[in-house]
């Protein structure tokens, strides 16, 4: 166990790059990445702003580290199963992590100085697809397709005012109720017969789309082998 220091009567873990990154992620989860500043981060950590630079060189290094931490939370494709099961497992893990850190989605592929966890994750995904029989070209196609869907769904999920339960049903009812049903018959049908019904959860749509993609990739691989 690391020794603690005290500031203002409070006990703290000694300041380190890891603690700074954890604080930055926690703050971004609360206020979004656009509002994250060194001054706000210092307040979060209860330190002086300049103290941060004793452990990280600049804000870009903090952003690089934050994304690397997010990648570390995503499960890599397991090596003890087939590529399709492994990629499904990895993608489901990624959706959960990105729902926890929605600010990270636009930044996941934007870093020009990727950290070791980021590189290990990409290498593991590529290795999973190559080990599953994908050519280099098909690996590139498959990776782009899967992650385009993954990131797009994560953005959509993060921006929905509700994703399921009574909150979503009430929202749908509020929108649909004042509308003339005969003017928007298909929208009304979808809302009343599905979205407003008990048990509907938009997040379940992710698995449906993911399975379509994986099945299509598997079929393409089979056709290529013929």
- Describe the sheet with the most strands: 2 strands, antiparallel
Distance from first to last alpha carbon: 59 Å
- With helices defined by DSSP (H or I, 4 residues minimum), what is the helix count? 10
Strand order of the largest sheet: 1-2
Helix content: 55-70%
List unreliable stretches of 5+ residues.
Answer: 1-11
What is the count of β-strands?
2
- Characterize the overall form: flat
Question: In terms of structural class, how would the helical and strand content be classed?
Answer: mainly alpha
User: Strand share of the residues?
Assistant: under 5%
- Taking all Cα atoms into account, the compactness measure Rg is 22 Å
What's the mean pLDDT score?
A: 90
Tell me the series of helices and strands, N- to C-terminal.
Answer: EEHHHHHHHHHH
What does it look like?
The chain has 10 helices and 2 strands, in the order E-E-H-H-H-H-H-H-H-H-H-H. The protein has 226 residues and is mainly α. The longest helix has 24 residues. The chain is flat. 23% of the residues are buried. The N terminus is likely disordered.
Brief summary:
The chain has a two-stranded antiparallel ribbon. By secondary structure, the chain is mostly helical.
Sum up the structure in keywords.
226 residues, mainly alpha, two-stranded antiparallel ribbon, 64% helix, disordered N terminus
What is the element layout, followed by pairings?
Elements: E1 5-7, E2 10-12, H1 17-31, H2 38-45, H3 49-52, H4 59-73, H5 83-100, H6 116-131, H7 136-159, H8 165-176, H9 185-195, H10 205-225
